[in-house]
Amino acid sequence: MDAVTRIERALSAAIGLAEGPGCPPRLAQAMRHAVFPKGARVRPRLCLAVAGACGDDAPVLAEAAAASIELLHCASLVHDDLPCFDDAATRRGRPSVHAAHGEPLAVLAGDALIVLSFQLLARAAQQAPARLGALVTVIGDSVGVPRGIVAGQAWESEPRCDLAQYQREKTGSLFAAATAAGAAAAGADAAVWRLLGDRLGEAYQVADDLRDAVEDEQEMGKPAGQDAAHHRPSAVLQYGLSGAIARLEDLAAEAVAAIPDCPGASALRAVILSETRRLLPRKLSASAA
Amino acid sequence: MDAVTRIERALSAAIGLAEGPGCPPRLAQAMRHAVFPKGARVRPRLCLAVAGACGDDAPVLAEAAAASIELLHCASLVHDDLPCFDDAATRRGRPSVHAAHGEPLAVLAGDALIVLSFQLLARAAQQAPARLGALVTVIGDSVGVPRGIVAGQAWESEPRCDLAQYQREKTGSLFAAATAAGAAAAGADAAVWRLLGDRLGEAYQVADDLRDAVEDEQEMGKPAGQDAAHHRPSAVLQYGLSGAIARLEDLAAEAVAAIPDCPGASALRAVILSETRRLLPRKLSASAA
């Protein structure tokens, strides 16, 4: 079974917990809206790719780790779109969760997705109970304090903010968790796999800043020009357009170089090369060609 | 060391993770504001009391479970107070988190406290790794979907809502988790301990509805009359004042009867009796005397 099928199946099973008897139906609808139809699923594909490179001897746990990371990513988007943050009416080309379901259910859907990410891990860890502690720590630390997504988002409420730290926490942390959790789910040492995810996460954030600067709302599927509009830190504002493109290329090369020795290293290298080539916005890669 | 000291020490250590280097200082302040100075700590005291009755052979894990449950309770209060829910300006006799720190940091502090509750468990479970799965499941299920606090709160967004189910999820679920997690942390069977927490949780919710109906804002430390103002389900609205008092007394008796056989059963019975006697609002116990 290919990675995308494994991921969608694991996410469906997770949302199924909300759609079973007993759950308020509108909350379940808001959660499904946040997770489906699928986004790029970049982080869970990365998680499964690393688990595969490390032997993938507990595939149910690897799938739960991948789904857990995607649920946390979706939760962060739902809360980021709230009126008190970006106040975004659209996401992935359709109404954001709060625009479609109201602000109360958007707050609650985000909360429920965060909790669900840990409920999933605990259930799947029956396959390899000794690995649960590392997985909860790796994934929890990438979302919470002191240096996870939530901490990254909170830098927007501080009078001063370091761009590199902001992006490392807001985006890089969950990429680093994706590679580390893929390794941990397969019983490998999580720590040596963080650098790969860290570099990819920063590359992904720079690419997102580039898209925000050069694409319009229809191309992005969400409001464009948000960084400038909200005076938010952005690689394009900091380095200029060509500087940000050069930074993206450096980060992609560093990611490939960061893959640790393992049985599946060369196959993984090919995956990472293909993923990073897709990061540059089409408009810029066309003009560069 | 007494239970209150153990709980406050564990909560301080948890919030210390947010106050260490690297975390946005205003987020750390908002999280501290949500957790200190102490509330009644009813749920974590219940958790430690059950762990004690079951032998408490992994005290660090029991303290983490107790702190985890209190962090989740605090997170739910922070999010409940948001403008899109109760829009409460005060809590525990002082400004609510969003009133003091703004809405963005209130959303993020709640999110970070939810994640922190699982980070704590994973760290403490090094003392007894085989117990982590049961703890994350018991605690996660009590907060998320399909029947945890978040699901309970989401019933307010449904056209129809069953009062018993609403209160069981919104309050009872975390009480049931407190007793079940206390047992799980001590290596005992969690399932047989749920009924005690379930009965106590419903008693606590009925007492809260009574306070909301008969006390003023100064006595409660938060806005009074919220249930009637928001047309919210409430035991007082459903049963009347004397009916709600009778229901509270029945639930307290059922809680005491639900304590499973264990070495510390009689000591625990005394704790439960003393806790339930304190639930009736002073104004009503004075007029009843």
TrEMBL record, chains A, B:
Protein's UniProt keywords contain Metal-binding: yes
Entry's Gene Ontology BP terms? isoprenoid biosynthetic process
Q: Name one GO molecular function term.
A: metal ion binding
Pfam families given for it? polyprenyl_synt
Tell whether Magnesium is among the UniProt keywords: yes
Which cofactors, if any, are listed as required?
A: Mg(2+)
InterPro entries linked to this entry: Isoprenoid_synthase_dom_sf, Polyprenyl_synt, Polyprenyl_synt_CS
Keywords for this protein: Isoprene biosynthesis, Magnesium, Metal-binding, Transferase
The family line of this record is: Belongs to the FPP/GGPP synthase family.
Q: What is this protein called?
A: Polyprenyl synthetase family protein
Organism, as annotated: Dankookia rubra
User: Lineage of this protein's species?
Assistant: Bacteria, Pseudomonadati, Pseudomonadota, Alphaproteobacteria, Acetobacterales
